UniProtKB/TrEMBL annotation, chain A:
<dbReference type="InterPro" id="IPR001851">
    <property type="entry name" value="ABC_transp_permease"/>
</dbReference>
<feature type="transmembrane region" description="Helical">
    <location>
        <begin position="286"/>
        <end position="310"/>
    </location>
</feature>
<feature type="transmembrane region" description="Helical">
    <location>
        <begin position="202"/>
        <end position="220"/>
    </location>
</feature>
<feature type="compositionally biased region" description="Polar residues">
    <location>
        <begin position="1"/>
        <end position="12"/>
    </location>
</feature>
<keyword id="KW-1133">Transmembrane helix</keyword>
<feature type="transmembrane region" description="Helical">
    <location>
        <begin position="69"/>
        <end position="89"/>
    </location>
</feature>
<feature type="transmembrane region" description="Helical">
    <location>
        <begin position="148"/>
        <end position="168"/>
    </location>
</feature>
TrEMBL record, chain B:
<keyword id="KW-0813">Transport</keyword>
<dbReference type="InterPro" id="IPR017871">
    <property type="entry name" value="ABC_transporter-like_CS"/>
</dbReference>
<dbReference type="InterPro" id="IPR052156">
    <property type="entry name" value="BCAA_Transport_ATP-bd_LivF"/>
</dbReference>
<dbReference type="InterPro" id="IPR003593">
    <property type="entry name" value="AAA+_ATPase"/>
</dbReference>
<dbReference type="GO" id="GO:0005524">
    <property type="term" value="F:ATP binding"/>
</dbReference>
<dbReference type="InterPro" id="IPR003439">
    <property type="entry name" value="ABC_transporter-like_ATP-bd"/>
</dbReference>
<comment type="similarity">
    <text>Belongs to the ABC transporter superfamily.</text>
</comment>
TrEMBL record, chain C:
<keyword id="KW-0812">Transmembrane</keyword>
<feature type="transmembrane region" description="Helical">
    <location>
        <begin position="99"/>
        <end position="117"/>
    </location>
</feature>
<feature type="transmembrane region" description="Helical">
    <location>
        <begin position="64"/>
        <end position="87"/>
    </location>
</feature>
<keyword id="KW-0813">Transport</keyword>
<dbReference type="InterPro" id="IPR001851">
    <property type="entry name" value="ABC_transp_permease"/>
</dbReference>
<feature type="transmembrane region" description="Helical">
    <location>
        <begin position="262"/>
        <end position="280"/>
    </location>
</feature>
<feature type="transmembrane region" description="Helical">
    <location>
        <begin position="192"/>
        <end position="215"/>
    </location>
</feature>
Length: 389, 237, 290
């Protein structure tokens, strides 16, 4: 929302002065770099202040923003946004349709839970051990699954994730707690991250994770490897002809995305103070896919918005399902409306059918339509393209 | 001058995000063989595929006065267009008989004509098409187009990679086919063109660079050299 | 010895169920390039339809059980055909979007099944014979295994005959090889698309009724549970190959049973098998080279 006035101001200024085209171009480029950055920073500062404010959004949030219940939901939404962002790196940037991304998230969640449970390592060293483990798993699975492409790749990643799911549910040596899951052993977790009273610390942790993940994804996308990965997505043959190594680049992106998911998983464990087998399931990966497509494939902020929106919708629809209003309806309406996943699934189908490009695509089209002069239209389009490229 | 059977106006086509047919305009007369010439990779095959709707295209295409540029491939073909693709594209896992049966559209397909032209195929009807020689596969491909009563045949390099004797056989079959319907023929073999073509269309870099009478062009070796970069046999001799 | 026989026949029974799901998946993928995530829902709905029939008309009669099989298959076929007509067709040739639409449908329908029938398994009844066992070389083999195997063999024969001797079968076989050329012969392949969806849905619906006998319950997650292994079977067998699906279904299920019995991690062994096959033959056992 804050982008629009800034852009308007900037373009009206350039209209008034109408300097040399070269000058205008240089300033335009600088503006294109600074406007999103400033907007992002402002947004992060705003989000960081939320625990100190009492903002109420009835229907969206369960209570005022300083209450632990609301902060818990928001922190969850931020973490899921970060996870969706790591999936965006895989699917949106490299074009790798993986159905097994949940595996690496689960490595973070369960890995940290198990290490804290079984060893005397403090939190940070434990997290490092898990991260290394996550990188190793991603390397092995990625190296094998990237031998095939397209739909076969999707199925192979699905199969590996399923293996992880089976392993977790079988509870080998009592390590994972089977269907029950595993509670967080807080002995070696710093006190500031434990307990309802400290939810806002966990919220800040979640925000920090999102910011770091965003920065890394941005960095990878802008790097040489990111460009090669994007080129591979469009035309693998051409990349190979000009001497690129698509396999290695794809593996790199795969491992980075997986590592980010592992990191997010560890934060998730601290926030939820426990691990449940659902995070290892294929359905969980599918919901990530839903978020990214909902937000708009290829758009970074779209992925975050998709993740946040999905989580909030899921929470609120769950509350709606339990509400009096729904209970009174005839069963034809009550049954579907009391299933959040039914509504989300249907919404997803509708978006795929009628809203190509998801939320980001719609926003871009809207920006085009409402643009007052062509100059500004071009500006916004370039911003958005750059943003989503 | 009768109405042309096919009118192509400003045809453009893109494949995999790349424009492979830039701007093609030409007519196919209602009788005889119209040959499409051009160096390798200039977009001859793509032009035929765009006409058939196998590649996404824009522009105007009319078949006997009716617009066909918005129709799906199967509709266009059912309007009476036979297609013999560049690399035969027989169904390798299907038998010869099945390949032919699949192509039968008319209530009374011309099985006798095909059996007369290609007796070999009758003998091999139970053989898998994938195990046929290149020449035999070409016969299956031609037979699929000849089975039905078409208003126009699109034939793409039917003699590609065939031994001289088989080339003659294919040319004979094409002459036979041309007696029943006008043919748009992509061909590199100038002898075959000399024998069959009445009109020529030369394509370069996705555009038409020459149209005219076939005999006239073939009598002008310099022009051929310029348009196609090849020497005719007289020229070389 | 008797353990081995029991594991083998149980494995074959499970393989039969995998095949009933994988045959449709493989045909749909082969012809249309669509990976159908909603296939599990076809199976689940078929299973619930069969269960509703049995519940209303008396579960222990063979006539009702036969009817349940027919209804399960018909419901699966209708659901699948509608999926193709209403959702998949609109995204013609956009394979990723087609997969996404089936993903959304799978999520939504499983939730709907949960809302309608509850998320806990419903234990089922059937003709008494199905609950009994038959002695094979000293092993007491549950009878429902034989039923699943028999049904899968019949379906395999039926699909093979259909593909070989009907014009639609001819179109489907040709379309799996080269869809563009089929349209260039003047054939509207989209009719064949609806048809393979319906055939695949019928096999899955039938598989649903049989699977609920095999496992002893129906649940909204029955389909999803089998779908993942059916995917693995499809890839191992070679995408688009019906025979490949049959061979791989047996291979995967038997291996899984043995590994489960002797080691406890059959599902992991299956994934390792998949990895091995992909390393040695990325196109699957009987798949064409990409
Ligand atoms: N499916 C495709 N994908 C990518 N590029 C394509 C595709 N089809 C055609 N092209 C490109 O379009 C251009 C024209 O190809 P086309 O096959 O039409 O040439 P042609 O004139 O038939 O050549 P030839 O005489 O060698 O058969 C070529 O550069 C080719 O590489
Ligand atoms: Mg060509």
């Amino acid at each position: 929302m804050t982008t629009t006035p800034t852009t308007q101001q900037a373009s009206s200024r350039s209209d008034e002065t109408a300097p040399l085209p070269a000058d205008d171009g240089a300033r335009g480029a600088a503006r294109r770099r600074w406007v999103p950055l400033a907007t992002g920073l402002a947004l992060v500062v705003l989000l960081a202040c939320l625990p100190l404010l009492a903002i109420s959004l009835p229907g969206v949030l369960p209570g005022p923003t300083y209450t632990p219940g609301t902060l818990q939901v928001l922190a969850l939404a931020l973490l899921v946004g970060a996870l969706a962002l790591s999936y965006h790196l895989l699917f949106g940037v490299a074009g790798l349709l993986s159905f097994g991304h949940a595996l690496y998230f689960a490595v973070g969640v369960y890995g940290l839970a198990i290490v804290l449970d079984r060893t005397d390592l403090p939190l940070l060293p434990a997290a490092c051990v898990v991260l290394v483990g996550g990188i190793a798993v991603a390397h092995v699975v990625g190296a094998i699954s990237l031998r095939v492409t397209g739909i076969s790749f999707a199925m192979v990643t699905l199969a590996f994730a399923q293996a992880g799911n089976v392993l977790v549910r079988r509870n080998p040596a009592g390590a994972t707690g089977g269907e029950e899951g595993l509670a967080l052993d807080t002995t070696h977790v710093p006190d500031v991250l434990v307990g309802v009273a400290n939810t806002r610390n966990l919220y800040w942790l979640a925000l920090a994770v999102l910011v770091v993940v965003y920065a890394i994804v941005l960095w990878v996308e802008r790097s040489r490897a990111g460009h090669v990965a994007a080129a591979t997505r469009e035309n693998e043959m051409r990349v190979r002809v000009v001497g690129g190594r698509p396999y290695l680049v794809k593996l790199l992106v795969f491992v980075v995305a997986a590592t980010l998911a592992t990191a997010v998983g560890m934060a998730y464990l601290l926030l939820q103070s426990g691990a449940v087998p659902r995070v290892t399931s294929a359905d969980f990966t599918l919901t990530l896919l839903v978020m990214v497509v909902l937000g708009g494939v290829g758009s970074r902020w779209g992925a975050v918005v998709g993740g946040v929106l999905y989580t909030l919708l899921d929470q609120r629809l769950g509350a709606l399902a339990a509400s009096e209003a729904i209970a009174g309806l005839p069963s034809v309406l009550r049954v579907p409306l009391s299933e959040p996943l039914f509504i989300l699934g249907t919404l997803f189908v509708l978006v795929v059918l009628f809203l190509p490009g998801g939320i980001a695509g719609a926003a871009q089209r809207l920006a085009h339509r409402s643009g007052r002069n062509r100059d500004r239209q071009r500006e916004v389009a370039r911003d958005t393209i750059e943003e989503s490229a | 001058m009768t109405e042309p059977i096919l009118r192509v106006t400003n045809l453009r086509a893109t494949v995999a995000g790349q424009q492979v047919v830039e701007d093609v305009t030409f007519d196919v007369p209602a009788t005889g063989v119209t040959a499409v010439l051009g160096r390798n990779g200039v977009g001859k095959t793509s032009t035929l595929k765009a006409l058939l709707g196998l590649y996404a295209r824009t522009g105007e295409v009319t078949l006997a006065g009716e617009r066909i540029d918005r129709l799906s491939t199967d509709r266009i073909v059912r309007r009476g267009v036979g297609y013999v693709p560049e690399d035969r594209e027989v169904f390798a896992g299907l038998t010869v008989a099945e390949n032919l049966r699949l192509a039968e559209r008319d209530a009374a397909p011309r099985r006798e004509l095909v059996a007369d032209l290609f007796p070999d195929l009758v003998r091999r009807s139970a053989q898998r098409a994938g195990t046929l020689s290149g020449g035999q596969q070409q016969m299956v491909s031609l037979a699929r187009a000849l089975l039905n009563d078409n208003r126009l045949l699109l034939v793409d390099e039917p003699t590609k990679g065939l031994a001289p004797k088989i080339v003659g056989q294919v040319a004979t079959a094409l002459a036979e086919a041309a007696a029943t319907a006008p043919v748009l023929l992509v061909e590199q073999n100038l002898e075959v063109i000399e024998r069959l073509a009445t009109t020529v269309v030369v394509i370069d870099a996705g555009r038409v660079v020459h149209t005219g009478d076939a005999a006239e062009l073939l009598d002008d070796p310099d022009r051929i050299q310029r348009l196609l970069g090849v020497h005719t046999s007289e020229n070389a001799a | 010895m008797s353990t081995i026989v029991l594991l083998l026949i149980t494995g074959l029974g499970l393989g039969a169920l995998y095949f009933l799901v994988a045959s449709g998946l493989s045909l749909i993928y082969g012809l249309m390039g669509v990976l159908n995530f909603a296939h599990g829902s076809f199976l689940t709905l078929g299973a619930f339809a069969g269960w509703e029939v049995a519940r209303r008309l008396g579960a222990d009669s063979w006539g009702v059980f036969g009817l349940a099989l027919v209804v399960g298959a018909a419901v699966g076929a209708a659901f699948a055909a509608l999926t193709e007509l209403l959702l998949v067709r609109r995204l013609y040739e956009r394979h990723i979007e087609q997969v996404l639409v089936t993903v959304g449908l799978a999520l939504a329908t499983v939730a709907l099944f949960e809302g309608t029938w509850g998320s806990d398994p419903e234990f089922i009844e059937g003709p008494a014979w199905l609950r009994g066992t038959t002695d094979v070389a000293g092993a007491p083999v549950p009878n429902d295994r034989f039923l699943a195997i028999g049904a899968a063999v019949l379906v395999l024969i039926g699909i093979v005959l259909f593909l070989r001797y009907t014009r639609f079968g001819l179109i489907i076989r040709a379309g799996v090889e080269n869809r563009a050329m089929v349209t260039a012969l003047g054939i509207d392949v989209r009719k064949a698309f609806t048809l393979v969806f319906a055939v695949g849905g019928a096999a899955a619906g039938l598989g649903g009724v049989l699977a609920s006998q095999y496992f002893g319950y129906v649940s909204p997650h029955l389909g999803a549970q089998l779908l993942i292994f059916a995917f693995i079977v499809t890839v191992i067998g070679g995408l688009g190959s019906l025979t490949g699906a049959a061979v791989a279904a047996v291979l995967v299920a038997v291996l899984q049973q043995f590994a489960n019995y002797y080691w406890g991690y059959g599902d992991l062994v299956v994934v390792l098998l998949l990895a091995l096959v992909l390393l040695v033959r990325p196109s699957g056992l009987l798949g064409r080279r990409a």
